[in-house]
Amino acid sequence: MISQMARSTSFGKDTGLQMRMLATMFGLGLVYVIFMGALIGGTGLPIPVVLIGVGAMFAFQYFASEGLALRAMGAREVTPQEAPELHAMVERLCIQADIPKPRVAVADQAQPNAFALGRSPKHATVCATTGIMNLLSPAELEGVMAHELSHVANRDVAIMTLASFFASMAAFIVQFGFLFGGGSRHNNDDGPGMMGLILVSVLVYVVSFVLMQALSRYREFAADRGAAIITGRPSALSSALLKISSGMERVPQTDMRQAEMAAFYIFPPGLKKGLGNLFSTHPPMEDRIEALGRLEAQLQSGR
Q: How many structural domains comprise the chain?
C-alpha cells in the first residue's frame, strides 16, 4: 500500500484531497456569487464598483497575505548562512519530494510550532519557531518540515487562504452593519438593504467556516501521510506531535496571540479534547498518531 502511494507521487498527494479541494472551490464560487449579489443589493453601489473593490481586496490578500502573516508571527526569512542546518534540511526534503525549495523563515517564539504559506510551490515559505527547533530532535524536526512541504506541494494553502478571505469579509460586514445600524435606514422596497446584507454575510461566514473545517482536517492527514512518504519515518512525526502537544501546554497564553492562524499551524494553539475539539481546524492528535502508526506498520512490512 505505502509503496503504491510512493510510486504515485513522491510527496503524498492523494485523490481524496484533490476532490475535496475542487469541492471547496465550487462551494466558494457559489458563495462568491451570492455575496456579490448581496453587496450590490445591500449597498446600492454600481456593479463595477463592487466588483473592483472586492477584487482589489482579494488580490491584496492573495498576494500579500504571506508577508502579512509572517510579520504577525514575528517571523523573518533567514539565509543559509543564518540557519544552515534548517536550510540544508529543507533543501534535502525538497529534493526527495521533487518540489522547488521555498523560502525559509524563523519565528522567535517559545510556542513550538511550524507552518507553510504561499500561493504556489514556486511562491511559498515554510517557517519554524525557535521553540520547536529547541524542542525536537533533528529527525522529529525533519518530519515536521516534511509535513509543511507536503502542504506546499498539495497547494492546499492557497485554497485555505481563499476560504479565509470570504469569511473575513463576511465577518467585517456583519460587524460594520451592526455597529452603524444601517438596517432601518436602508430597508425599502427597492432591495434587501443593509439587514439583508448582514443576514447573507452571516450565511457566507458559516458556509466558508464549514468549508474550511472540512478541508483543513483532511489536509492535515494528507500532509502527515506526505511527510511519512518523504522521510520514510512516520514514527518521527508521531514523536514530534506528542512533544509539541506537551510543549504547547507549558507556553503562556499570552504567547499564543496568533490564534487566528490556527488552520495553518502543524498543531493549533489551544487544541482541546472531546467536544471542545468539535470546531477545531485540526483532527484530534490521537487520530493523527493512529494513522501514522498504520503507515509505520505498512512501511515495516513492505506493503
A: 1
